[in-house]
Design goal:
Distance between the termini: 13 Å
Oligomer: single chain
Number of strands: 5
Shape: globular
Largest sheet: 5 strands, parallel
Strand order of the largest sheet: 2-3-1-4-5
Structural class: alpha/beta
Strand content: 5-15%
CATH superfamily: P-loop containing nucleotide triphosphate hydrolases
CATH topology: Rossmann fold
Helix content: 55-70%
Radius of gyration: 16 Å
Bound molecules: cytidine-5'-monophosphate
CATH architecture: 3-Layer(aba) Sandwich
């Protein structure tokens, strides 16, 4: 069974994907980590974030070390990821790895922006997870505070809105729900309630 979970930044899709993977005993791929690892590599190399060649080279040569870099979740890395992810060559370089992961025997859970539309249009169940931008900013601020990092909620909201715009407006694999995706708005849902709602969607999709 392949479960595709897409949605904007801090919508709760990562938490949901991890819980679903555990529940169904499936491997999980956070596809955003791939784009973050590319962005992180450029930041570390002090390369220009608009340097398409450097970004494509990084995407083609990612290592396990890049994917486990402790700086992957930093705000600056998220911003860099959002820039390099608009480059068609970067997306092309990361496509096959994601497809192979999804199509392994038994299936998988993948979360990202284009899993249901580009990576796995054939997924058995597709969820598009959203939440109001202000609520996403608050969640992100709480996450940073829990890690002992400074969190300016207004700046985070501006960053989230800028990232949403960039992800939705890019020409290649823009952020949008697949026609057959089930929309799940987690604005007023606890993690547990979102998990229950997602399971109900998946079980009904699989029964069909
Ligand atoms: O989900 P996360 O915040 O980790 O993703 C970081 C960035 O990577 C996003 O802002 C988005 O621009 C990009 N991304 C993407 N396609 C995916 C996953 C992430 O373009 N499948």
């Amino acid at each position: 069974m392949i479960i595709a979970i897409d949605g904007p930044a801090s919508s709760g899709k990562g938490t949901l994907a991890r819980k679903l993977a555990l529940h169904y005993g499936l491997p999980h791929l956070d596809t955003g980590a791939l784009y973050r690892a590319v962005g992180r590599r450029l930041l570390k190399d002090e390369a220009d974030l608009q340097d398409v060649q450097a970004a494509e080279n990084a995407a083609r040569s990612l290592t396990a070390g890049d994917l486990n870099d402790p700086g992957l979740r930093d705000e600056a890395t998220g911003e860099a990821a959002s820039i390099v992810s608009a480059m068609p060559g970067v997306r092309a370089a990361l496509l096959e790895y994601q497809r192979t992961f999804a199509r392994q025997p038994g299936g998988a859970v993948l979360d990202g922006r284009d899993v249901g539309t580009v990576i796995c249009p054939e997924a058995d169940a597709k969820l598009f997870v959203t939440a109001a931008a202000m609520i996403r900013a608050k969640r992100r601020a709480d996450e940073l505070k829990a890690r002992g990092e400074p969190a300016d909620e207004r700046r985070i909201l501006e960053d989230i809105e800028a990232r949403d715009r960039r992800d939705a407006e890019r020409t290649v694999a823009p952020l949008r729900p697949a026609a057959d995706a089930h929309l799940l708005d987690t604005s007023n849902l606890s993690i547990e309630a979102a998990f229950e709602a997602a399971k109900a969607v998946i079980e009904s999709a699989v029964r069909k």
